[in-house]
Amino acid sequence: MVKCKAYILLVCVAQDPEKGEKPMSIAACLATNIKRMRKEKQMTQSELAERAGIPLFFLQGIAAERKWISRDTAAKFIL
User: Fold this and answer.
1) Residue 32: CB atoms within 10 Å
2) For residue 74, with 0-12 CB atoms within 10 Å meaning exposed, 13-18 middle and 19 or more buried, which class applies?
3) 3 burial class (0-12, 13-18, 19+ CB within 10 angstroms)?
4) pTM, entire model
5) What is the pLDDT of residue 67?
């Protein structure tokens, strides 16, 4: 069950090329969805990093699309 929930982080809204929108990279999709879910829960990056058990700098790297995460780490973001 956690495996399936972790993959929801990668589900992106389809981009419309006719409107000049480019497809999102997987890293951008992941960063966007983590940020959206974090804001829905009204959490800071620090709070989310603590709750997920990862260093803040690592979460910031994910948000900036510089870091990639494993399936196990992605599962930690399921709030």
Assistant:
1) 16
2) buried
3) exposed
4) 0.69
5) 85
How open is the CA angle 39-44-49, to the nearest 5 degrees?
A: 110
Angle, helices 56-63 vs 45-52, to 10°: value is 120
| pLDDT tens for each residue of 30-47 | 888 888 888 988 999 999
Gap between the Cα atoms of 46 and 57, Å rounded: 9
Which uninterrupted H or E stretch holds 62?
A: helix 56-63
Q: How many CB atoms lie within 10 A of CB 18?
A: 6
Torsion angles phi and psi, residue 30, rounded to 5 = -60, -45
